Description:
By secondary structure, the protein is an alpha+beta fold. It has one domain: Aspartate Aminotransferase, domain 1. Helices cover 29% and strands 28% of the residues. The chain is built from three helices and six strands. A six-stranded antiparallel sheet has the order 1-2-3-4-6-5. The chain is globular and about 30 Å long.
Amino acid sequence: MAFDEKLAARLREIFNKTGQFTEKKMFGGIAFMLNGNMCCGVINDLLMARVGRDRYEASLALPHVRPMDFTGKPMKGYVYVEHGGYREDVDLKVWVDRCVDFVSTLPGK
């Protein structure tokens, strides 16, 4: 399964500025990891964002966002963001910041 390489490159550009992240191929896409925890990623042309359970409902209320249902069952704390939600670099950075804010609270693996 292919994933949007342009979106992955945009994410790399954001993450390379911090140097704290690693990449891992997962789910037929790519995930960006912080301290061993999945932070965000790309599945097909969707941004997979780990926002945490506390910000899950608020994230779903935003335009271009839907539940992450990779297995057919929504995964609480994770959302998919469609292209319209990350089209501009500033919008993508906002999503990355949301993910980093949550994942930074988790213990490292």
